[in-house]
């Protein structure tokens, strides 16, 4: 699938109707989601015919992108039941077969299929300090091949150090810097829209040296 086609299809998806600030719910826009999964497949072969988990899937944009890029199986995991309802409707609208699980990522004990690749847009950790690192730690334990994740560019050194030193990643690479559009969703937002610089990372867990 071509990048523009993927972005166009993701642009049709419903997003949060009642976002929860305590969960730092911000929609992953089609621009970023399409580039994330397109790069994962076309540069690294980490999506097609692979089992992909979308951690903190929200309304299911990254999982939908993985499915459209040919993933064998996609599993979306989120703590919020309302988000999962929207994600399920989005999958139905695009005629995608995605499994959704309601669970707090931090309490996740994985007994399902072996996950090849994890994709995620974790909370930035501004409301709950360290939430982004909690997601990364769990993802690196579960994914056997690669973890793709978005983190604020301002935290780049911290993210790299934590991944390699604390979470056992064999590699941590910034693939590109992107602009994350944050629409005015919450009362404390002063501006109608804000751009945040984010890094798209690819982490390889220790079990798979460089695939």
TrEMBL record:
InterPro entries: DNA_methylase_N6_adenine_CS, rRNA_MeTrfase/Polyamine_Synth, SAM-dependent_MTases_sf, Small_mtfrase_dom
Name of the featured protein: Methyltransferase-like protein 5
Lineage top rank: taxon: Eukaryota
PROSITE patterns per record: N6_MTASE
Domain Methyltransferase small: 48-129
Organism: Salix koriyanagi
Molecular function terms from GO: nucleic acid binding; rRNA (adenine-N6-)-methyltransferase activity
Pfam families to which the protein is assigned, alphabetical: MTS
Family: Belongs to the methyltransferase superfamily. PrmA family.
């Amino acid at each position: 699938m071509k990048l523009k086609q993927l972005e166009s299809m993701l642009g049709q998806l419903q997003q949060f109707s009642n976002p929860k600030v305590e969960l730092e719910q911000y929609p992953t826009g089609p621009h970023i989601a399409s580039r994330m999964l397109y790069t994962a497949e076309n540069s690294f072969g980490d999506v097609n015919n692979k089992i992909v988990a979308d951690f903190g899937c929200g309304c299911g944009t990254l999982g939908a992108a993985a499915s459209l890029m040919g993933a064998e199986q996609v599993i979306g995991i989120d703590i919020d039941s309302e988000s999962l309802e929207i994600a399920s409707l989005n999958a139905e609208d695009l005629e995608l077969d995605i499994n959704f699980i309601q669970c707090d990522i931090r309490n996740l004990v994985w007994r399902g299929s072996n996950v090849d690749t994890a994709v995620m847009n974790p909370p930035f950790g501004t409301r709950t300090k360290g939430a982004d690192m909690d997601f990364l730690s769990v993802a690196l334990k579960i994914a056997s091949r690669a973890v793709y994740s978005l983190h604020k560019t301002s935290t780049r050194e911290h993210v790299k150090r934590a991944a390699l030193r604390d979470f056992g990643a064999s590699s941590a690479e910034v693939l590109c810097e992107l602009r994350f559009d944050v629409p005015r969703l919450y009362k404390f937002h002063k501006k109608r829209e804000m751009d945040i610089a984010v890094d798209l990372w690819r982490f390889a867990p220790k079990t798979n040296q460089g695939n």
